[in-house]
Amino acid sequence: METIRFDIDADGIATLTIDVPGQSMNVIGPDFLADLDTAITRIASEEGIKGAVIASGKDSGFMAGMDLKYFGSMLASADGQRPAPTAIFDNVFVLNQLFRRLETAGKPVACAIEGTCVGGGFELALACHRRFVGDSPKTQLGLPEILIGLFPGGGGSQRLPRIMGVQASLMYMLQGKLFRPAEAAMLKVVDGVVPQGTALAAAKDWVKANPTATTQPWDVKGFKVPGGAGGFNPAFVQTMAGALPMTLKQTQRNMNAPIALLSAVYEGITLPMDRAIRIESKYFAKVAADPQASNMIRTLFVNKQAAERGARRPKDEPKAPTTKLAMLGAGMMGAGIATVAAQAGMDVVLFDRDQAYAEKGKAHVEAVLAKRLGRGMTPEKMAATLARVTPTTDYAALAGADFVIEAVFEDVAIKAEVTKQVEAVLGADTIFGSNTSTLPITKLANAWSKPENFIGVHFFSPVEKMPLVEIILGEKTGPAAIAKALDFVAQIKKTPIVVHDSRGFYTSRSFGTYVQEGAELVGEGINPALIENAGKQLGMPTGPLAVSDEVSIELGVKIMTAAKKELGDAYVPQGSDDIMVKMVEADRLGRKNGKGWYDYPEGGKKHLSPVLGDLFPRADAQPDVEEVKERLLYRQLIECARCFEEGVLETPEDGDIGAIFGWGFAPYTGGPFSHMDTVGIAHVVAVLDRLATAHGPRFAPTAQLREMAANGATFYRPVPSRAAA
């Protein structure tokens, strides 16, 4: 066997050590399934084998889920068409049958878990008669498939509820929430938490002591699901009756997998396991056959991991980790960057013009760390992390820094002054990164003697929570700067995308259209509540008016005013410009002053302001919600397409990752480019033409989109050469 080492000790206990070659983490693929089949046959048929233990031969952990290359092959046929759900069912049910054979082999089987055990790996563990896990605080267990558009398809949706009860298991599966060892033991998901490195010995001891423990609880006559199940059980009925509307509300009816999971649990929980896993496989195949799943897997898992592993990093550049960071600006953004850098083990000089501001920045670091005490953070670790942050107003303190990030006020002149002061201390050979959300990097780089060493490093607020970093290349940015920035992002465990220079770059520019279209709709007299609900039903985290308040209406006007001044006659006015100015003139600046599109009463709940009806009189005829959703969606899609045509984006992968993790673009689509591919470029062009006719040239399709539609091309297949930018 290539993926499993099979050893039998003197007590007749077989140890199956999983070590999939060529993989950093064990995953389920065709070779593993074949080897597991062989191993189960031996366990069941050889009299000398008294029981078995399954363990991992890798230091990275026990096992993750299915090899996504293998899963992808299930979803592709020779003619390029997606296979029918029945074909996917045939493949998936093989896995379910294997796990079922394991738990009914007539021998006790225990699982020894050290490190990560998730997805299909955790479903394998659930099929064992006992589970022992090492007590490492880094170990995580569970079924996170829902987060990438799937749900547990290897028996997990049937075994976990039978172990911990329907209500509790649904809470974990519907959120993709993972267990730590102690939590898993408390919920009886594992049977023993033992000192790290001793799980194998504990599992062997149990098998040796329990030679007749060969039957799962659910295979014993009279078994009852913890907490009850079935149509005549009040608790079960109440759980399922509440779970469906809550799930529909949270997903806005956009996600396939959560509803399929609820159906599989509801239908399978009172049936014998052999029938239950068939039902699970049926629903899993239906979900997997829809493009939604493959789009989400591609962006949220495959391409995200590739980006984090350096897909866009210049291959010939040596590794350039940051040891000492010069962090310029101690406001919320600078303090947030200082926090994640210090947590990653870097020394951070936190610079500001005023010592009180610099100290306040360090206090922010302390406050963030304090909230994590008891959740992986100890007082000793907190003290060591804080000691790495040095607040200062002295440029000389920056000496020895090997990377600079600037996050001072969004003004070209102020940034240029700070940049020159830093170069005087560190020299132009140091890589300089500017955290700006809109100002062109090429222009900012003029203040650094070697613009090839100047790069944009755009973080999102709050830095500690937001996963994306947008790396922006100026016209002269060189490979050493790209490598340094990407290595820094890897150190702080964020997800990078790489884009080219443009006012607003990719994320701010494209996200801004969502806010702008919301304002345009208000200006046309559309009911603000309709606009907000349409945004949420579209799958956005919040409505365009609410998010406009959060980022500040006043800030949007300042950015617009600066762009007008900078571009002159080249500036293209938007209908939303006058609307936003009118809001600022009415002193409605956003949440910052307690009144924007919403009112924020002290001690009360925010609500859409009745003043909006006076500022923007309500139109007699209101559109339906689908029309509003379409406008909010396609205004974003066309801007993303423009970024691609202009070369701001080089790849659709960066576009999809940046949209979902940068501004919360509807995750169920897999991102704007995946969505356009799925509905068809010709359809996208037709909708945009209709919207442009009705609402203006901001919706006009790009020349590249028209060319792609004519040629049947998609963003993820080879596309025609770009129109000249």
TrEMBL record:
GO annotation (BP), single: fatty acid beta-oxidation
Domain 3-hydroxyacyl-CoA dehydrogenase NAD binding: 324-501
CDD domains reported for this sequence: crotonase-like (cd06558)
InterPro entries in the cross-refs: 3-OHacyl-CoA_DH_NAD-bd, 3HC_DH_C, 6-PGluconate_DH-like_C_sf, ClpP/crotonase-like_dom_sf, Enoyl-CoA_hydra/iso, FA_oxidation_alpha_subunit, NAD(P)-bd_dom_sf
Alphabetical keyword list: Fatty acid metabolism, Lipid degradation, Lipid metabolism, Lyase, Multifunctional enzyme, NAD, Oxidoreductase
Keyword Lipid metabolism applies: yes
Pfam families in alphabetical order: 3HCDH, 3HCDH_N, ECH_1
A GO molecular-function descriptor: enoyl-CoA hydratase activity
Organism domain of life: Bacteria
Pathway field: Lipid metabolism; fatty acid beta-oxidation
Catalysis performed (reactions): a (3S)-3-hydroxyacyl-CoA + NAD(+) = a 3-oxoacyl-CoA + NADH + H(+)
UniProt domain 3-hydroxyacyl-CoA dehydrogenase C-terminal: residue ranges: 504-600
Similarity annotation: In the central section; belongs to the 3-hydroxyacyl-CoA dehydrogenase family.
Name assigned to this protein: 3-hydroxyacyl-CoA dehydrogenase
